[in-house]
Predict the structure.
Amino acid sequence: MPFDGITTKKIITELQNTIVGGKINKVFIPSRNEILLSVYTKGKNETLLINISSSYYRMHLTHISKPNPMTPLHFCMVLRKHLIGYVIKNISSEGLDRVVTIDLQGYNELNDVTYKKLIIELMGKYSNVVLTNEKGIIIDSFKHFSSSETSREILPAHPYLPVENVKKDILSVSQSEFMEDVIHQKQPIDKIISSLYTGISTTFIKYQLENLAKDASLPHLYTSILQIYNHLADCTRFTIYEKDYTVEYGQSAETASEFLDQFYAAKEELALLSSYRNNLLKLVLANLNRITKKLQVIQEKQKECEEMDIFRIYGELLTANLYQISSDYRKDSITLNNFYEENTPITIPLNTTMSPADNAKNYFKKYHKLKNTREIVAKQKQEFSLLLDYLQSIIFELENAQTLQDIDEIYEEITENHVLKIGENPSGLKTVSQSKVKKVAPKKTSPTIEPLTYCIDGFTFLVGKNNKQNDYLSTKVGRNEDLWFHTKDFHGSHGILKCNGSSEKVTQDTIIACAKIVANHSKAKNSSNVPVDYCFVKYVKKPSGSKPGMVIYTHNKTVYVTP
């Protein structure tokens, strides 16, 4: 649900009882879409959040801290100069309009009383915050608009022109007028009312119609809208509806700001998580494609190297028969008996510009070159195959990451292991990992996020959420007598069953339960009969120099489970 006029009025009603009369003591602009005003009121500090992004425009009190940039934006400095020390005298809006005016009173340098207005326009992509003096002249605004961009100019030193509203105010029309407006329209009722009347969203109308059920007539709907408006202060609350929210009639233990603060924080984190994951995934996939192409080149080189033995045979046959070949022999081929295949005749191509002896040397040179190439590309193939496997495990981790901290730890892991270039920021987002972009943090003995913990038949079962955690569990947490689990031939989490010296008490049912959990945290989670290997931790080894999450193990057994 967009931050509509009903929500705006509800918040204004709440703010009038909380921060009106308070004094602004701090101003922050944590991002290019948000303003935080710290207001000292009734013996404590309250923080007013104003967001003017196109998707999450809103205003309410917040208790969620935001990072304060080292270099403040210009508008932040303007607000600090003009607002700090000013008292909020009133907060208001016209009807269900989404333009909120905060009236402020303070003192200038000459200690004279002055008045200013902070006007918050919550209008999608045209949302803005405008500061004016008592004469209505714009001091400055968050966004500047010229007459060529919008129907009115929002520029410093220009008079502030109110937003022209072409929609009707439902509070000023009678029931008969309301029915006359709506009844002849052919669109759905929610869209009709939203398009005709200011400040009313389709989500709000849908919810009202659903609540009215059989009584969902136009007169009842009109009465329901006015009832909610008339009781915004005391008998309305927010409720989740169709993955969104709306206002309904009823009581609530939480304030409107508390609800909106939690709702938008979850929504923004989800959007941030998706953006961060997708951008990081894009970089990892680019590296994976690069490695895949290198492996294709290596395979082509290996095919070329398969011909090296024929060059050796050509050279040896030419050398063995030089005594009967004239040194001035200049034909493009020669047929000799191949003593490697029972003297079967073989035709050897020759370079006519070279002597037979030089042709033999040239074939030996080609042979040794391809032999060396084969050894080099064999090592490269092994290295790139391991790296490809590692990148595929990173993709699995990213697809299953649930929080920003999860992705942050994955980013830290691949940066430490030089999968991404140092300084290659995947998203530009201000997360924990951004502070590590220029300088790679040293490897830690333990991850920053705790592994998943389960209790199975009285035993503790730990499951890693990424490769670093897998290594931590397999090499640091697990003891020799503990059991180690991992899906066979599938990327996934490592699991450690803490046996506490009582491995003989672990039943087959416990092993199967652990195997199901591990299979559920693997790439085979949607499959059936998934093979899961398990063994004692003492049989799990991490090869020196191997990538995170890569181990070798022996003495294992396999169970087949369905996640």
Q: What stands out?
A: The two ends are 37 Å apart (CA to CA). Residues 167 and 198 are 5 Å apart (CA to CA).
